[in-house]
Design a protein that fits this description.
Order of helices and strands: EHEHEEEHHHHHHEEHEEEEEEEHH
Radius of gyration: 18 Å
Helix content: 25-40%
Largest sheet: 5 strands, antiparallel
CATH class of the largest domain: Alpha Beta
Oligomer: single chain
CATH topology of the largest domain: Uridine Diphospho-n-acetylenolpyruvylglucosamine Reductase, domain 3
Number of strands: 14
Shape: globular
Structural class: alpha+beta
Number of helices: 11
Length: about 260
């Protein structure tokens, strides 16, 4: 690891200010990807600005049907929050299956969303839930936030502070995890609110997380597993590696979608 300067930010504004004045500053929010990359000397930020201790960026709040989660809230805190389990148990359940206990107790929802790993779980949840991403500059819809593999609409000096969404009437997430990393080889989050259905897929596409429009239309007409049968998944857009071919992942997407619908009831 190359030499770096560590800063413990006291507020979101303080974090942005420190990052702006650094030569090549990076926000540290769990560090599940950044720190291993630094250890391999594949990244060498001049400064690390730790945002995990900012009180205003931690915790889960439920007001009516509106759920707000601070960006520095860990996966374990999301998984175990009683209010979230009641309002949107599908998201709490998703968080409980991220990585292993060490990852869940250090990694944060904001860090995961900002990194936008193509196999991460939270991006699918944010898309399916129609979430709003709150930053130090603005509010961005999830549909506009995720722009490609490891890419988001965030500017270099912009920090995610929270996410919010209206809890769906039905929702569930199903994933087929890599047995070693627990990352999704294919994960599908299905959410229904009234007559609107949103389906988001992670882990499978070469473009990163995406919404499955044909599945959404099919499920809006009939919310049951059989509605997925007539949907197709383009193998040409799927990832292919030692863990699974494009055809394998395309099939997994349909299987996980069916499991999610079944779990949502």
């Amino acid at each position: 690891m190359y030499e770096t300067t560590y800063h413990r930010a006291s507020s979101a504004d303080d974090a942005v200010s420190r990052a702006s004045s650094a030569g090549d500053g990076k926000f540290l929010s769990g560090g599940m990807t950044l720190l291993p990359t630094m250890k391999q000397r594949l990244a060498a930020p001049s400064d690390l600005i730790d945002v995990t201790h900012i009180a205003d960026m931690k915790g889960v709040s439920v007001s009516g049907s509106t759920v707000t989660i601070g960006a520095a809230t860990t996966h374990a805190e999301v998984a175990n929050d009683a209010g979230l389990k009641k309002a949107c148990s599908s998201l709490a359940n998703l968080a409980s299956h991220i990585g292993d206990p060490a990852v869940r107790n250090r990694g944060t929802i904001g860090g995961s969303i900002a990194n936008n790993d193509p196999a991460a779980d939270y991006p699918a949840a944010m898309l399916a839930l129609g979430a709003t991403i709150h930053t130090t500059k603005r509010e961005v819809s999830a549909d506009e936030f995720f722009t490609g593999m490891f890419e988001t609409a965030l500017a270099d000096d912009e920090l995610i502070t929270a996410v919010s969404f209206d809890a769906p009437s039905k929702g569930a997430y199903a994933k087929f995890p890599n047995p070693a990393s627990r990352y999704a080889m294919a994960g599908v989050y299905v959410a229904q609110s009234g007559g609107d259905v949103r389906v988001a897929v992670t882990g499978a596409s070469s473009d990163g997380v995406y919404r499955a429009a044909d599945m959404e239309s099919a499920l809006a007409g009939s919310f049951n597993e059989g509605a997925i049968d007539g949907c197709s998944v383009d193998e040409g857009n799927m990832l292919s590696d030692i863990h699974g071919s494009a055809a394998y992942r395309a099939n997994l997407v349909k299987v996980m979608a069916k499991r999610a619908v079944a779990a949502a009831g």
